[in-house]
Amino acid sequence: MRVLGIETSCDETGVAVYDQNEGLLINKIYSQSLLHSHYGGVVPELAARDHTLRIIPLIVSALRETGLTSSDINGIAYTAGPGLIGSLLVGSAVACALAYAWNIPIIDIHHMEAHLLAPMLNQKNISFDSGFYSNCTDVIKFPFIALLVSGGHTQLVMVKKIGEYKILGESIDDAVGEVFDKIAVLLGLQYPGGAALSVMARNGIKGRYIFPKPMIHKPGLNFSFSGLKTAVSRVILSLKTNDNQVKADIACGFECAAIETLTIKCYRALKQTQIKNLVISGGVSANLVLRSYLSNMLESMQGTLLYPPKLEFCTDNGAMVACAGLIRLKSGLAHTNLSILVKPRWSLESLPKVEI
Ligand code: ATP
Ligand code: MG
Ligand code: FE
């Protein structure tokens, strides 16, 4: 069985083919970041228009490079939500048109479930029959806790099994990745600057700037990052400095506050549920400070930390959509209703159950 995955929820056009036995055959991505960098953030209308230009050539080159033809594909998985409506519509329309032309079913994919499955992308012969979740190196049992940290989401999720999710906590305002990007712009870095901010922070002196860790003294597992964003912005705007050391010190102070907050909430979620294993995914899971804080914390609890096997699988990509598609195709959740329907808002908790 082979699935073509299409990702167009935000500003990356992603196309991939995932094979049941061979694993990932190809993963192609076109990032619009340069297009949006002039504006310091994603411009939805421009994003949708650019997807329409990129998507077909990406699919054609993915098939050409793998030597596959339409008859080698058993289903088309596309991101149906959540995301920007114009961007989602492009992926949905292309998936429906190809499914009609090739006479194969489509599979609606939840973008955050796809992120959640990204740690499995190195696997061949993917199987959940044994009830385990694995990134090749480590194998963990269900249930586990997932921290989904991206440009639009900050969520702590209890994963009872694939397809059965309970949201334990989430951000009541800005997502952590979004705040990394906004602070990065103020520090003079190009959008999306989360990764560059983290590099800048490496030269910073810890403790020169100490920012409040949001909501750690309140009970519960929700997050709030807008206060931290305001506190850091105020310092940057009042100093108006071009001194690279000062900028690095601020970046370091901000990163520490954000990462320590995420770590404290993960610890709380694990303790509260008496679960030992944690999976992180989404763009911010590429952050090395986050990985090191969490793996230290889990070591002391004799738990395991899993994250995507390559940095390119942390941020948006077609591979994770194709992989999620294969799982849902195998469990009978593909369909032939080709009405173009997208869900800009869609809760992980309301997904159709996966029977494997
Ligand atoms: P969502 O998945 O919620 O719809 P999105 O798809 O835009 O949002 P992703 O592509 O998963 O988000 O992740 C992008 C985000 O990850 C950006 O905000 C980016 O700055 C952030 N990011 C990437 N690398 C790092 C890093 N090393 N440190 C911190 N943030 C990072
Ligand atoms: Mg993006
Ligand atoms: Fe994403």
From TrEMBL:
Q: Which organism is it from?
A: Blochmanniella vafra (strain BVAF)
Q: What does the entry's cofactor note say about binding and number?
A: Binds 1 Fe(2+) ion per subunit.
The cellular location(s) given in this protein's UniProt record come to: Cytoplasm
Catalytic activity from the UniProt record: L-threonylcarbamoyladenylate + adenosine(37) in tRNA = N(6)-L-threonylcarbamoyladenosine(37) in tRNA + AMP + H(+)
Give a short account of what the protein does: Required for the formation of a threonylcarbamoyl group on adenosine at position 37 (t(6)A37) in tRNAs that read codons beginning with adenine. Is involved in the transfer of the threonylcarbamoyl moiety of threonylcarbamoyl-AMP (TC-AMP) to the N6 group of A37, together with TsaE and TsaB. TsaD likely plays a direct catalytic role in this reaction.
Cofactor(s) needed = Fe(2+)
- Which keywords does this chain's UniProt record carry? Acyltransferase, Cytoplasm, Iron, Metal-binding, Transferase, tRNA processing
Q: What is this protein called?
A: tRNA N6-adenosine threonylcarbamoyltransferase
EC nos: 2.3.1.234
Q: Which residues form the Gcp-like domain?
A: 24-322
Q: Which residues cross the membrane?
A: none
What is the similarity comment for this entry?
A: Belongs to the KAE1 / TsaD family.
Q: List the molecular function annotations (GO) for this entry.
A: iron ion binding; tRNA N(6)-L-threonylcarbamoyladenine synthase activity
At which positions is Fe cation bound?
111, 115, 316
Q: Looking at its record, which EC class is this enzyme?
A: transferase
What are its GO cellular component terms?
A: cytoplasm
Question: What coarse category fits the chief subcellular location reported for this protein?
Answer: cytoplasm
List of residues binding substrate: 148-152, 181, 194, 287
Alphabetical list of InterPro entries matching this protein? ATPase_NBD, Gcp-like_dom, KAE1/TsaD, Peptidase_M22_CS, TsaD
* Entry's Gene Ontology BP terms: tRNA threonylcarbamoyladenosine modification
